[in-house]
Amino acid sequence: MIQPVATDLYAAKAPLEWAVIGNGILFTAQIPIGADGAVVDGGIEAQTRQTLDNLRHTLVCAGGDMSSLTQVLIYVTRREDLATVNRLYAEYVSAPYPNRAAIIVSGFAREEMLVEMVAYAAMQETGDG
Questions:
Q1: Average pLDDT over residues 109-114
Q2: pLDDT for 126
Q3: CA distances (Å), origin 99, targets 14, 46, 72, 121
Q4: Among 15, 46, 106, 110, which has the highest number of CB atoms less than 10 A from its own CB?
Q5: What is the pLDDT of residue 63?
Q6: Are 43 and 2 a contacting pair, CB within 8 Å?
Q7: How far apart are CA 53 and CA 106, in angstroms?
């Protein structure tokens, strides 16, 4: 049984939850959208920062933090953006680091997106489910 995580992120029009918890594991995919639901302007740096802010917010709403992360899959559209993503990622995540992969893709559902992150985190069991 999964439990949706209530966040203050923009309510998606697609049939999805920003995050769910099942068996003590948080599953989430985060994109660079602001409170208005639009992809943020400003290139890879702004988009990566927004995606990481959204991820951190989701983890806090679920009762965790960035140290709860167990794996992060980073998708970018341009290989040359990985250096910027790595620099910003290091501002949000510290050792011991979660397992991680970086994948270059041809694009996303929203054409203006340059980055997306799929993350998994270990959450404390509440014992009420």
A1: 96
A2: 55
A3: 28, 24, 6, 11
A4: 46
A5: 97
A6: no
A7: 24
Tokens for 102, please give them. 């970086």
Q: List the beta bridge partners of residue 39.
A: 33
At 46 the pLDDT is 98
Judge contact between 37 and 14, C-beta under 8 A. no
Closest CA to 40 of 27, 28, 52: 52
3-state secondary structure labels for all residues of the chain: CCEECCCCCCCCCCCCCCEEEECCEEEEEECCECCCCCECCCHHHHHHHHHHHHHHHHHHHCCCCHHHEEEEEEEECCHHHHHHHHHHHHHHCCCCCCEEEEEECCCCCCCCCCEEEEEEEECCCCCCC
